[in-house]
């Protein structure tokens, strides 16, 4: 049974990591836009 | 000059330069020898086993030798940006590509011709199936590696770490061809099953990628 | 535009949770493999989504080569990246499923091997984009994408024949599927498609922003230079 | 100043209209619009990074403008007139392992000069015109920098082009051969060729050039027949 949950959790860990990378990139860009605006 | 005239002239120039400064070819011949010897040490199979795994070993050894040769494809053109002179001239880009690919094909075939007898000796190989079929397999397989290799070598000219980039681009795309070569050779060596399907696959692979290369090479050459 | 994005986000969230419920609880338990078979509902739709994304990448690359339109190039980059993420999911859930059922982590199953090769091809595509120093990286990348796509049928047939010579267990059983299972499968696929669409949309906007900032910084450095 | 023979109504050799060339972040050309009449010798001045080489490469068809259009010898598709273009760059564009004659014979083949005898005569003639010895067996790699520049110029002259693009032809060439080269360029201009010479030593061409074109930060900022005025 735990194989089943392992697979589902693994799926969301992978997607989660990718989304986290995107969010981090987003905030980095936000900061750069601010510095450019000044 | 006609398309094939330019191809012939470029190929003749490359072969002449290669023959004149034989250091490149000697280094690669020695490298291939090393690869064969190391493979032979790491595996010491009985006659029966060797027939089963020799196909894979031979082609991986050929792949190493090919990669080393393919990395040198554009070295001479790069040194003095001779590619710019070629691009300004009315000569078609495909003539250059075909000449380079044929040059590599000859080059890699020479390396293979040296390595094969060594493999036969070290692995006590004797094919059970129709041995003559090994020739088309070797030719089709080598061309599959060389045509894409020459093309991706041109692409990797424009990247940072050029030597590592070529295998990174070439290997994934060559998986079907590698599968074809290895299984066809094994089928011949072990005499089990026929290599017909794999030879057909190699032919399809060569046709698809030779035409793709000829269609897209100019785009790559112009993308400086 | 903003409204469309949040609607899609909500729809995706709803669909995903409903699909999760269906997969884990509502779907009938498979007789032979038992509950572990439910990995099927995540493994297979992820693969289909990945293949669809790579198809979009191929079309976008061809359109870019013909029209040199940067939107097509960004779409190609985005679908390749998100496609690789879904491929990773397939390559992770596959072995997790194979282990309890056949006792082995890896089997040269047709779909699994095809996904692995595609994963390798499109990771090399992303590596080329990162390592390229040419001002025309999109052109080189789209050429490689076309080569990658041309390779797919050849990969498929070579593995298919390779498997007939080395029979190995098939993940997800090709046989006929209980209609209710098929229903759950489709729901999951719809959920994954929405998720892919949402992530692609975000990544697309991010890439557009990144390129604009890059261009602005270039102009700024030039102005400073000549002031 | 030698009066240029080019009749005014002749087709302009080069017409640039709002040419922009961007390399990722860097904009090498930022809006070049100009007309250059045929049969004249233009000297392109400007410090490093002003876009001189990029402009020359765009004229040679080696770089496509990101925006704007450029028409060479009456057509925007440079490829169709590439038999009429000669290009010489910083690097020698020659194979180091081959002798000068072998190099030129190979490039003659690319330009469609097929049969041996005409190719030989043409190469010998061009090599002689840059004051080098055609029979020199030494590979180009062992030439002095000056000789290599002149052999590179010979390669650019091989197809007797209407438009000649030279990037720093005089760099580290001894002054005497530089003078000879300047005379050679003037003769070619007198024979009706159009020349664009990018150089940091405009003085060498002061009394032969028709016009001095100053570039700065990707734009043409000044065009003048006199060197002194142009170089403010």
Description of the structure:
Chain A has one helix at about 1-35. Chain A is mainly alpha-helical and about 40 residues long. The radius of gyration of chain A is 17 Å and the shape is rod-shaped. The mean pLDDT of chain A is about 90. Chain A starts with a helix and ends with a helix. Helices cover about 95% and strands about 0% of the residues of chain A. Chain B has one domain (about 5-220). The longest helix of chain B has about 30 residues, at about 95-125. Chain D has a domain at about 15-95 and about 160-230: P-loop containing nucleotide triphosphate hydrolases (Rossmann fold). Chain D has 6 helices and 9 strands; from the N terminus they run βββαββαααβαβββα. Chain D has helices at about 50-60, 100-110, 115-130, 145-155, 175-190, 225-230; strands at about 15-25, 25-35, 40-45, 65-70, 85-90, 165, 195-200, 210-215, 220-225. In chain D, α2 (about 100-110) packs across α3 (about 115-130) and α3 (about 115-130) crosses α4 (about 145-155). Chain D starts with 13 loop residues before the first strand and ends with a helix. Chains in contact: A-C, B-C, B-D, C-D. At the A-C interface, α1 of A face α2, α3 and α6 of C.
SSE blueprint and pairings:
The complex is a heterotetramer of chains A (38), B (224), C (227) and D (232).
Chain A: H1 2-37
Chain B: H1 3-20, H2 23-42, H3 47-71, H4 75-79, H5 82-88, H6 93-123, H7 134-156, H8 162-190, H9 196-222
Chain D: E1 14-23, E2 26-36, E3 41-45, H1 52-59, E4 67-72, E5 85-88, H2 100-110, H3 116-129, H4 145-157, E6 163-167, H5 175-190, E7 194-198, E8 211-216, E9 219-224, H6 227-230
Parallel strand pairs in D: 3-7, 3-8, 5-6, 6-7
Antiparallel strand pairs in D: 1-2, 1-4, 8-9
């Amino acid at each position: 049974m735990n194989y089943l949950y392992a697979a589902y959790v693994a799926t969301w860990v992978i997607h989660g990591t990718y989304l986290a990378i995107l969010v981090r990139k987003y905030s980095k860009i936000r900061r750069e836009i601010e510095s450019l605006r000044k | 000059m006609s398309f094939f005239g330019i191809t012939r002239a470029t190929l003749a120039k490359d072969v002449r330069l290669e023959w004149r400064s034989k250091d490149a070819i000697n280094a690669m011949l020695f490298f291939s020898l090393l690869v064969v010897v190391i493979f032979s040490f790491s595996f010491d199979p009985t006659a029966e086993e060797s027939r089963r795994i020799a196909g894979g070993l031979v082609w991986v050894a050929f792949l190493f030798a090919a990669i080393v040769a393919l990395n040198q494809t554009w070295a001479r053109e790069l040194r003095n940006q001779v590619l710019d002179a070629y691009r300004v001239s009315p000569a078609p880009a495909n003539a250059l590509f075909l000449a380079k690919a044929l040059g590599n094909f000859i080059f890699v075939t020479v390396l293979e011709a040296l390595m094969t007898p060594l493999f036969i000796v070290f692995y006590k190989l004797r094919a059970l199936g129709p041995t003559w079929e090994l020739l088309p397999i070797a030719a089709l397989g080598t061309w599959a590696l060389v045509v894409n290799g020459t093309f991706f070598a041109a692409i990797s000219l424009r990247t940072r770490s050029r030597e590592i980039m070529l295998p990174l681009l070439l290997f994934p795309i060559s998986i079907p061809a590698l599968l074809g070569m290895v299984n066809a050779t094994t089928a011949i060596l072990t005499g089990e099953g026929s290599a017909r399907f794999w030879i057909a696959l190699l032919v399809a692979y060569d046709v698809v990628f030779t035409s793709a290369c000829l269609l897209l090479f100019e785009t790559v050459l112009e993308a400086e | 535009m903003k409204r469309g994005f949040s609607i899609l986000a909500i729809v995706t969230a709803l669909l995903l949770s409903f699909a999760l419920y269906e997969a884990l609880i509502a779907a009938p338990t498979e007789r032979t493999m038992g509950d572990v078979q439910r990995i099927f509902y995540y493994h297979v739709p992820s693969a289909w989504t990945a293949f669809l994304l790579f198809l979009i990448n191929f079309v976008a690359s061809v359109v870019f080569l013909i029209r040199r339109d940067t939107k097509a190039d960004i779409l190609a980059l985005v679908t390749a990246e998100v496609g690789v993420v879904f491929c990773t999911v397939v390559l992770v859930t596959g072995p997790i499923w194979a282990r309890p059922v056949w006792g082995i982590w890896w089997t040269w199953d047709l779909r699994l091997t095809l996904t692995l090769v595609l994963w390798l091809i499109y990771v090399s595509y992303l590596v080329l984009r990162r390592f390229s120093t040419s001002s025309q990286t999109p052109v080189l990348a789209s050429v490689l994408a076309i080569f990658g796509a041309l390779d797919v049928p050849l990969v498929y047939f070579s593995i298919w024949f390779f498997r007939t010579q080395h029979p190995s267990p098939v993940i997800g059983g090709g046989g006929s599927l209980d209609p209710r299972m098929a229903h759950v499968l489709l729901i999951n696929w719809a959920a994954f498609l929405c998720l892919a669409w949402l992530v692609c949309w975000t990544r697309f906007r991010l890439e557009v922003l990144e390129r604009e900032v890059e261009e602005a910084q270039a102009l700024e450095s030039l102005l400073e230079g000549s002031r | 100043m030698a009066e240029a023979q080019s009749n005014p109504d002749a087709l302009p050799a080069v017409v640039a209209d709002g040419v922009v060339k961007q390399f990722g972040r860097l904009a090498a050309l930022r809006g070049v619009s100009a007309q250059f009449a045929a049969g004249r010798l233009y000297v392109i001045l400007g410090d490093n990074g002003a876009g001189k080489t990029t402009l020359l490469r765009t004229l040679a068809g080696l770089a496509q403008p990101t925006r704007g259009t450029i028409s060479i010898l009456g057509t925007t598709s440079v490829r169709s007139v590439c038999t009429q273009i000669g290009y010489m760059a910083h690097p020698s564009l020659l194979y180091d392992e081959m002798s000068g004659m072998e190099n030129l014979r190979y490039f003659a083949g690319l330009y469609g000069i097929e049969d041996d005898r005409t190719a030989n005569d043409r190469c010998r003639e061009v090599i002689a015109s840059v004051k080098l010895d055609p029979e020199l067996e030494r590979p180009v790699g062992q030439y002095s920098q000056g000789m290599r520049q002149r052999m590179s110029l010979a390669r650019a002259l091989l197809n007797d082009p209407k438009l000649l693009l030279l990037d720093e032809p005089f760099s580290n060439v001894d002054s005497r051969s530089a003078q000879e080269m300047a005379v050679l360029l003037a003769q070619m201009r007198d024979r009706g060729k159009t020349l664009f010479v990018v150089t940091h030593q405009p003085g060498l061409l002061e009394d032969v050039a028709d016009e001095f074109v100053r570039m700065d930060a990707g734009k043409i900022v000044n065009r003048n027949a006199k060197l002194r005025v142009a170089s403010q």
